Amino acid sequence: MAKDDKTRIPKRPMRNSAVLNEAYDYPKKVAFSRGMRVELDNAVMLFISGTAAVNEAGESIHPGDLKAQARRAFTNIKALLESEGADWHDMIRTTCYLADFRHYDEFNEVRNAFYAEEGLDPLPASTCIEARICRPELLVEMDAIAMIPKDRLRPSR
C-alpha cells in the first residue's frame, strides 16, 4: 500500500468563533485546533483542547478571579459542544488543570453548580491536577472528551 493510500478515520476541527477565536489567530503563532470531531462507525467523539477564560478575541479575562475563570471555561466548552449539536450530557471525560491546587474547593464549587444547572447525571469522569498554565494570568484550564451518535444533526451555520 502506498504511503498516501492509507485509510483514515474522518476528522475535522471544531469551531465556535462567537465565543472563542482560533489558535492560528493568536498574535504569537500556536499549533492546535480548539477541538477535533472524529467520526467512528455509529458515533462521533469530540476532543476539546485545553480551554480557559479567554474571549472571542483570544484575550484572557477575569484576571485573579478563579471562580469567574472556571465559569468561563465551562461556558466556552459548552459553546464548542453546541457547535456540534452536543451538550454537557454528552460529556464523558474532563481533565481540569489548576495553577494552584489550594483553590480546588473554589473550583469544585463552580463545577458542582455548573453541573447542577446542566442537570448532569451521571457526572463525567474527571481528573484535576495542579499544573503551570500557558498564560500566567490564567488560573484554570480544562480539556474534555464527549461522544454523540453519528446521526445527530449539527446546528445550521
Summarize the structure.
This protein is α+β, with helices and mostly antiparallel strands and 157 residues long. The protein has helices at 66-82, 104-118, and strands at 11-14, 35-39, 43-51, 91-98, 125-130, 140-149. Strand 2 (35-39) and strand 3 form a beta hairpin.
Explain this structure to me?
Helix 1 (66-82) runs parallel beside helix 2 (104-118). Helices cover 20% and strands 27% of the residues. It contains 2 helices and 6 strands. The chain is globular and about 50 Å long. The mean pLDDT is 85. It is an alpha+beta fold. A 6-stranded mixed sheet has the order 1-2-3-6-4-5. The N and C termini lie far apart (38 Å). It has a single domain, classed as 60s Ribosomal Protein L30, Chain: A (2-Layer Sandwich), CATH 3.30.1330.40.
CATH superfamily: RutC-like
Arithmetic mean pLDDT: 85
Q: Which residue ranges are poorly predicted, with pLDDT under 50 across at least 5 consecutive positions?
A: none
**Number of helices, counting only DSSP H or I runs of 4 residues or more:** 2
Order of helical and strand elements: EEEHEHEE
Structurally, the number of domains stands at 1
This entry's quaternary arrangement is: single chain
Record the SSE blueprint.
Elements: E1 11-14, E2 35-39, E3 43-51, H1 66-82, E4 91-98, H2 104-118, E5 125-130, E6 140-149
Parallel strand pairs: 4-5
Antiparallel strand pairs: 1-2, 2-3, 3-6, 4-6
Helix pairs in contact: 1-2
Characteristics:
60s Ribosomal Protein L30, Chain: A; 157 residues; six-stranded mixed sheet; alpha+beta; single chain
